[in-house]
Specification:
The complex is a heterodimer. Chain A is mainly β. Chain A is built from no helices and eleven strands. In chain A, the strands form two sheets. In chain A, strands 2, 4, 5, 6, 9, 10 and 11 form a seven-stranded mixed β-sheet that branches. In chain A, strands 1-3-8-7 form a four-stranded antiparallel β-sheet, with no helix packed on it. Chain A is globular, with a radius of gyration of 13 Å. In chain A, 35% of the residues are buried. Chain B is mainly β. In chain B, β4 (30-38) and β5 form a beta hairpin. The chains are: A mainly beta, B mainly beta. Chain A binds chain B through residues 6, 32, 34, 36, 43-46, 49, 51, 91, 93, 95, 97, 102-103, 105-111, 113, and chain B through 31-32, 34, 36, 41-46, 49, 51, 89, 93, 97-100, 102-105.
């Protein structure tokens, strides 16, 4: 079956340090990968969308300088939270889509939970 | 302003009972709507995708409806089980783009 593995599942980091999280698509080709953040008591916000053969598109309030993303092939993506501070804590989700349509299958990883001390 | 609103915010049902979750949205233009289940502290599991102007889907004990004219969707859970305890999130896909707009979720607690 198709799965998305995300790791690490949990990270505790000191304020000002960085954390890298990875997203692995298994059993399908991820033509696009979106990274989301669920902050405490909030819903999910889109950070950026990465589509194969296109530039990574960041949402307002999120920048490449703060959340650099790598999407080197159809099965792997990584995102780093640079200089993490308290407001960066939350659950980071990777969502991978197959095909080119908007209603294609969409798979989410279990998330990488970031705690900042 | 929240573009995707879910109600109720939370509910408690007894095992075996049915429940209905509501999703109202203002996203325009709307392409499709998805329902996800999120267990505490975990990721999202897709339950269904609704696409048509007036759509209905069924996935085991989960069934859903969509009315794009009313910009309204419902998720029905039949004969709830303890494992149905989770947060259910309604997500609207915007037309012409790949962006997904998430609702705030309904927390369902199933008691024995």
């Amino acid at each position: 079956g198709a799965l998305v593995y995300q790791y690490p599942r949990r990270t505790i980091c000191k304020s000002g340090t960085s954390m890298r999280m990875e997203c692995q698509a298994v059993g399908f080709q991820a033509t696009s990968v979106a990274w989301y953040r669920q902050s405490p008591q909030k819903t999910f916000e889109l950070i950026a969308l990465s589509t194969v053969n296109s530039a990574i598109k960041y949402e307002q309030n999120f920048t490449q300088e703060k959340f650099p993303i790598s999407h080197p092939n159809l099965s792997f993506s990584s995102m780093t939270v640079l200089n993490a501070y308290l407001e960066d804590r939350g659950l980071y989700l990777c969502g991978a889509r197959t095909g080119t349509g908007d209603t294609g299958q969409l798979y989410f990883g279990e998330g990488s939970k970031l705690t900042v001390l | 302003k929240t573009q995707v609103e879910q109600s109720p915010q939370s509910l408690v049902v007894r095992q075996g009972e049915n429940c209905v979750l509501q999703c109202n949205y203002s996203v325009t233009p709307d392409n499709h709507l998805r329902w996800f289940k999120q267990d505490t502290g975990k990721g999202l599991v897709s339950l269904t995708v609704l696409v048509d102007q007036k759509d209905k889907t069924s996935n085991g004990r989960y069934s859903a409806t969509l009315d794009k004219d009313a910009k309204h969707s419902t998720l029905h859970i039949t004969a709830t089980l303890l494992d149905d305890t989770a947060t259910y999130i309604c997500v609207v896909g915007a037309q012409g783009g790949r962006a997904l707009i998430f609702g705030t979720g309904t927390t369902v607690s199933v008691s024995p």
